[in-house]
Design goal:
Blueprint: E1 3-8, H1 14-26, E2 30-35, E3 42-43, E4 49-50, E5 54-55, H2 56-60, E6 67-70, H3 74-81, H4 84-95, E7 99-103, H5 107-113, E8 120-121, H6 128-132, E9 137-138, E10 143-146, E11 149-152, H7 158-170, H8 172-179
Parallel strand pairs: 1-2, 1-6, 2-5, 6-7, 7-11, 8-9
Antiparallel strand pairs: 3-4, 10-11
Length: 186
């Protein structure tokens, strides 16, 4: 059984969160949304509320997960970046050579927690300069996969990002099988 943990913090970008969760679940990946501040509904960047499946604390005890996902949203990414619990989860994920995925401003959490240094990644253009201060090679590609690190740029790349995660964990055939039913143009 494959599994994913999507970290949900106040101020997260809702499209990046929901599209990723939806596509991963369509791909057969058991996906848990872990609320950084608990299991109460979380107010996202555009005033949409999302109810986590569990608190991040509870969800982390159900691991390990094949992938940990950090959505963006400027405020959400800042909240993830300052969390010692997230740092612990990401360090364990990296140490055990499991996938880490981050989109939009989400890669700034990797920078803050010194995760996946030396890798090639991308992010939202608005945080590019910040990412350039770290020990990363920066790419303008819409989705970047470097070993066990998957990164992407923003809401408009959410489907590509989620499909890259499905490809990494379940294979290209599974990922490809999801495109037509969702009416995606790839």
């Amino acid at each position: 059984m494959t599994s994913a943990l999507v970290i949900l913090a106040e101020g997260a970008e809702e499209m990046e969160t929901v599209i990723t969760v939806d596509v991963l679940r369509r791909g057969g990946i058991t996906t848990t949304v872990g609320g950084l501040a608990g299991s109460d509904p979380v107010k996202c960047s555009r005033d949409v509320f999302i109810k986590p499946d569990a608190s991040l604390e509870e969800a982390s005890m159900k691991g390990p997960y094949d992938v940990i996902v950090c959505p963006g949203g400027a405020v959400g990414a800042k909240n993830i970046a300052k969390s010692t619990k997230v740092k612990e989860i990401l360090q364990d994920q990296e140490k055990n050579d499991r996938y880490i995925a981050a989109i939009c401003a989400g890669p700034t959490a990797l920078l803050s927690h010194e995760i996946c240094t030396g890798k090639t990644l991308t992010s939202h253009p608005g945080v590019k300069d910040k990412m350039l201060t770290g020990s990363y090679t920066y790419s303008e590609d819409r989705v970047v996969v470097d070993g066990k690190l998957i990164t992407s740029r923003g809401p408009g790349t959410s489907f590509e990002f989620a499909l890259a995660i499905v490809t990494a964990i379940c294979g290209k055939e599974k990922s490809d099988s999801l495109v037509a039913p969702m009416l995606l143009k790839m």
